[in-house]
């Protein structure tokens, strides 16, 4: 397991056999540079047996961009089709992995959004990447915080804000909501120049909208291990998690849990270790980390709530964690954990533990009372 674990191969494997739809219009960042970047992304996807559908506004600038793209992808022989109310048969008879569909005529951008919403709902597209030059920047929640992940309920609240009239952003928000309610699985709003990071990295590079906005916490499976390992390494690089050896990460994965948005999008990880602490009837929460773009959904709190639930199910007396980041200390404190002296934790925790590392961490514990703790798990 490499310390510099790459996230890209995981996503390319996950996209195998799926159709990714990319929407281009006059408000996309269409340049020679982004044309080449899009060609590189499409090649990566096709090599890994994904399919690409480009839905474009029928404007001269878009046609010129796609003409250049066709030259870049001449080895893939993309088929240019059109959509005039009927779905082109070529979309079902996928003789090539790349198709371009024009939504017809020299149209205003508002009409393109309307047609895109109908088209996406008609095909129930699994994933739509809506390319826009603002890349989702400046989208704020009610507290003025930048948004990274938006579910339909939050999107409806945004539409009720003061700018929800006829502004370009309000029209775009309504289009995305129509796409989600019409059956599109997920929408990403991003710049074309950021498309690779949006598709192939965990933190993304834009706004992610999901129709199924619930979060499921479950045990990690073999197919989740590579994604979870990369996420742990990301948490270490950000200073939120303490560094671990490859062997420690491997052991953690077999005892790990993941938080999944829309069933398959891993948004957070953690482990619950009990084996070494059986004599004390204790459990340790390790490597609890949630992606920044999903923090507004309380992913960390949901993971910790599940760990408390599991501790109660196993009738543990003590649940503890050792952290080195002030943000982690505050987070655990909000969920009923108190700072304790290190000698109050099971002595097995410190056996063969690096003394210098021990001096840097803070011990936090929550008394469970053999599974009869009456606090109830706090959900973030």
From TrEMBL:
<feature type="domain" description="N-acetyltransferase">
    <location>
        <begin position="215"/>
        <end position="360"/>
    </location>
</feature>
<dbReference type="Pfam" id="PF00583">
    <property type="entry name" value="Acetyltransf_1"/>
</dbReference>
<dbReference type="GO" id="GO:0016746">
    <property type="term" value="F:acyltransferase activity"/>
</dbReference>
<keyword id="KW-0808">Transferase</keyword>
<dbReference type="InterPro" id="IPR010167">
    <property type="entry name" value="NH2A_AcTrfase"/>
</dbReference>
<dbReference type="InterPro" id="IPR000182">
    <property type="entry name" value="GNAT_dom"/>
</dbReference>
<keyword id="KW-0012">Acyltransferase</keyword>
<protein>
    <recommendedName>
        <fullName>Amino-acid acetyltransferase</fullName>
    </recommendedName>
</protein>
<dbReference type="InterPro" id="IPR016181">
    <property type="entry name" value="Acyl_CoA_acyltransferase"/>
</dbReference>
């Amino acid at each position: 397991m490499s310390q510099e674990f790459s996230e890209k191969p995981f996503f390319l494997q996950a996209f195998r056999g799926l159709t990714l739809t990319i929407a281009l219009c006059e408000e996309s960042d269409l340049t020679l540079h982004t044309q080449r970047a899009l060609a590189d992304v499409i090649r990566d996807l096709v090599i890994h047996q994904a399919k690409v559908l480009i839905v474009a506004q029928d404007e001269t600038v878009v046609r010129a961009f796609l003409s250049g793209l066709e030259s870049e992808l001449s080895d893939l022989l993309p088929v240019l089709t059109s959509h005039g109310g009927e779905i082109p048969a070529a979309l079902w008879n996928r003789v090539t992995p790349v198709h371009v569909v024009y939504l017809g005529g020299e149209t205003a951008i508002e009409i393109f959004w309307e047609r895109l919403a109908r088209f996406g709902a008609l095909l129930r597209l699994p994933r739509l990447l809506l390319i826009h030059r603002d890349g989702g920047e400046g989208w704020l929640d009610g507290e003025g915080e930048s948004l990274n992940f938006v579910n339909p309920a939050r999107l409806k609240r945004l539409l009720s804000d003061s700018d929800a009239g006829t502004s370009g952003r309000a029209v775009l928000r309504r289009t995305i909501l129509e796409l989600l309610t019409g059956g599109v699985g997920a929408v990403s709003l991003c710049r074309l120049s950021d498309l690779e990071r949006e598709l192939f990295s965990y933190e993304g590079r834009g706004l992610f909208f999901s129709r199924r906005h619930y979060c499921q916490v479950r045990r990690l499976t073999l197919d989740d291990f590579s994604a979870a390992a990369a996420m742990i390494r990301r948490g270490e690089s950000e200073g939120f998690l303490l560094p671990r050896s490859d062997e420690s990460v491997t052991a953690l994965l077999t005892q790990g849990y993941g938080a999944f948005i829309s069933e398959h999008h891993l948004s957070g990880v953690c482990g619950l270790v009990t084996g070494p602490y059986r004599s004390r009837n204790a459990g340790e929460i390790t490597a609890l980390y949630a992606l920044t773009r999903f923090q507004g959904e309380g992913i960390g709190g949901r993971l910790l709530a599940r760990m408390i639930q599991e501790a109660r199910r196993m009738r543990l007396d003590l649940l503890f964690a050792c952290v080195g980041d002030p943000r982690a200390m505050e987070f655990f404190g909000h969920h009923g954990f108190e700072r304790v002296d290190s000698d109050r934790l099971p002595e097995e925790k410190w056996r063969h533990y690096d003394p210098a590392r021990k001096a840097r961490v803070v011990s936090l514990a929550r008394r469970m009372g053999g599974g009869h703790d009456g606090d109830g798990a706090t959900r973030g």
